[in-house]
Amino acid sequence: MRRLVQGNEAVFLGALKAGASFFAGYPITPSSEILVLAVEHAARGPAFKFIQSEDELAAANAIIGASLAGAKSFTATSGPGFSLMQEAIGYGHQAEVPTVFVNVQRVGPATGMPTMPAQQDILQTKYGSSGDYYPLVFYPDSVEECYRYAVAAFNAAEESLSPVILLSDAFVGHLNETVNLDDIEVEVVPRSRLPLGTDKRTFTGLAHDEDGRPRTADAVVYQKWLYKVKARHEQVAARYSYFEFQANASSDTLLISYGIVSRVTAPLTSQFALFRPIRILPMLGPELRQCARNYEKIVVIEANDGQYACLVECELKRDVIRVPLLGGRINLDLAKKGLSEKLEREVS
Amino acid sequence: MFKDLLRLERFPTTWCPGCGIGQIMIQLAMVMDELGLNYTNCVIICGIGCTGRLAGYMNVDSIYTLHGRTLPVAEAVKLVNPSLKVIVVSGDGDLASIGGNHLLHATRRNPDLTVLCNNNEVYGLTGGHAGPTTPRDTKTVSSPAGASYDPLNLQNLIKAGANYFYAKTTVYHQVHLRNCLKEAIARPGFAFVDITSQCIENYGRRLGFNSAYEMLLHFRKTYKRAPEGAETLEPYEIGIVRRG
To answer: How far apart are CA A265 and CA A242, in angstroms?
Structure first.
């Protein structure tokens, strides 16, 4: 049925479609609709479980426990809560636990500007926890995509045995669009391992060997483990290489944007080539290099002070022009103004 | 056989000779064996610290969680699969300090969990730093002039809930400890067993004890059974208080 659906609601419906049966969370705007939908759904029957946690630390760790106990599980939060969840995300990578963390971004740092939209958690998503890890991250820009990539996030979590992040922002989360989610065909990946109470395994945040036995002073075992996990993440990421590219033979500039900013910059298609990463992390290396090849200038326009731009620079090994949209003001006029200033020509 | 519940191929454990955790683990294994708990119906969830390593020494599915996060993990496991007996084993620092907020809220929600707190009054694994249960004036690595504050009153914290189960026992009182474990596991709800235990290497020696044995004798001398029907345990009383 075609109906008006909100971005956050689409994330929740996508999670259900993917087979999620456990949600734990702590209320925080602009993500709270997901928590409310979860408690409403839990009230409909015992198949779906819900915990409103005492804090984000509890929520993040509860979804890890729930996943190991047999439920596909997720939480939803925003920047400050996401910061509190970072240690658990690292744990999920070390203990190899599939879960999904939804981060509906707002302006930070700390309490920042509650609750203006931002995209300021890109680097936190990539590097926020301790140690080396390789998170898989999706960033939709429409209500339909919220649904589609929520399912993808759960699938990628099972395949990579890790916490997968679904990024959104206050605008995408609160966007209302008419969609028919029933018509969207998605594939659902089943659970990747048996639940607790079936074997004699130890799931641990310690470095460990294949039997789960702690190996805290063996560099060889550690390196073997890390590279095995890294290779697994790269293989899984390759199956989800989602992006959008609109070439423009008459332009010398590739404009990169994602999430809500890509909706804002869409009208600029006649003046620029446009690239939009959807599986935003790990970086879309070959795809990005291919798309950027024919353009003299690379511009990243984003609602932060150049976080993704810095990753693009690293990937392409080329200078990247940054156009930040800060303080929650994200609109086409500001985008044009910023582009005109940085490119030293009139962008209209 | 209770030994079937122990992962003997991973022995010797990382624990120092004389440590109390091994005694708690053996009593737990004996009680589990008696109650028919095994890898098909029971999971063990541990936190960080010396006590946390217990997870890897038992022949059931287990989780060695982040520091302080045993209770949120355990609550979720129990909610997803209520047929499992979920036993949390962790230290006083993990449960009462870094995980204190979860403990507070667990008393409110009363989930069906059995919690064993290896209470050695110190952060043993980090080298003997004062913790939330270190008695006032006790000298430790991080309290060279003596601990500045009174310890957290775990009994009162647990009793903040409408319904509660709090047992106090020690590693010396093995039969009492075993009975406490049995009653805690049988209770449908949040059952907290506060087990005074000896950390000889990073605590006891600095306090003048020459061996773990001396610490155990000290427990025998100082701890007495609470009177029958007591509603509150006085300091150095072992027993169980409950409501609901």
So the answer is: 19
**Minimum distance, in Å, between the CA of residue A92 and any CA atom of chain B:** 10
**pTM, two decimal places:** 0.97
Q: Could you report the per-residue pLDDT of A69-80, keeping only the tens digit for each?
A: 999 999 999 999
Q: Which pLDDT tens digit goes with each residue over A140-190?
A: 999 999 999 999 999 999 999 999 999 999 999 999 999 999 999 999 999
CB A92 within 8 A of CB A277: no
B117 min Cα distance to partner chain A (Å):
19
Mean pLDDT of chain B, nearest integer: 97
pLDDT over 90 at A221, yes or no: yes
Domain with CATH 3.40.50.920 in chain A: 244-343
CATH number at residue B220: 3.40.50.970
CATH label, A3-193+209-239, candidates 3.40.50.300, 3.40.50.970, 3.90.320.10, 3.90.180.10: 3.40.50.970
So what's the ipTM on this one? 0.97
Among B42, B63, B84, the residue with its CB nearest the CB of A203 is B63
Residue range(s) of every CATH 3.40.50.970 domain in chain A: 3-193+209-239
Residue pLDDT, tens place only, A233-287: 999 999 999 999 999 999 999 999 999 999 999 999 999 999 999 999 999 999 9
Of A61, A196, A202, the CB nearest to B69: A61
Is-contact A1 A52, C-beta < 8 A?
A: no
Q: Which CATH class is domain A244-343?
A: alpha beta
Q: Tell me which residue range forms the domain holding B59.
A: 2-243
* Count of the separate structural domains present in chain B: 1
Q: β-strand B191-196 against B164-170: which pairing, if any?
A: parallel
Q: What string of DSSP letters covers A276-313?
A: EESEEES--HHHHHHHHTT-SEEEEEESSSSHHHHHHH
